[in-house]
Amino acid sequence: MKVAIAYLSYSGNTQEVAEFIQERLISRGCSVDMHRIGIDAPIDPSGYDIVFLGTFTWENGRTPDEVKDFILEIGYKPNNIAVFGTGDTQFGYYCGAVDRLVNFFNSKWSGLKIEQSPRGSQEQLIDYWLRGVMERVRHIA
């Protein structure tokens, strides 16, 4: 299975989640391409079985501009996008960008929301979410 993980990270938390997902997918035999939004060249989602899109939430629940630019670069709404993100419950609109992107792409999967860093018990949350996403991808393919 060919997978892309596209993510935007300022603090490193979203990158940690992306790398955790990458490790899990590689251990399952997937071919994984990492894409740093705003740094790497644009990707074409049609070349992948699934694209994981990772972001943090900005200013009162908003999606960062770099992620919006990434979506514009794609030029269409692919149906193979699974969204994950990091946030901080103390600022309200917890992971609002995740909810917005899941709705925008009409994703087949619920969004994964991680409180700050994915360490500790949140690793189990990522594993559970990832299993559900991959099971559905296999049924679709």
Tell me what you see in this structure:
With 141 residues, the chain is an alpha/beta fold. The protein has a single domain, classed as Rossmann fold. 38% of the residues lie in helices and 21% in strands. It is built from 4 helices and 5 strands. The chain has a 5-stranded parallel sheet, sandwiched between helices. It is globular.
What's this model, at a glance?
With 141 residues, the protein is an alpha/beta fold. Helices cover 38% and strands 21% of the residues. The protein has four helices and five strands, in the order E-H-E-E-H-E-H-E-H.
Beta content comes to 15-25%
One letter per element, helices H and strands E, the order comes to: EHEEHEHEH
Strand order of the largest sheet: 2-1-3-4-5
Helix content: 25-40%
Q: How many separate domains make up the residues? A: 1
- CATH architecture classification: 3-Layer(aba) Sandwich
Kindly report the CATH topology: Rossmann fold
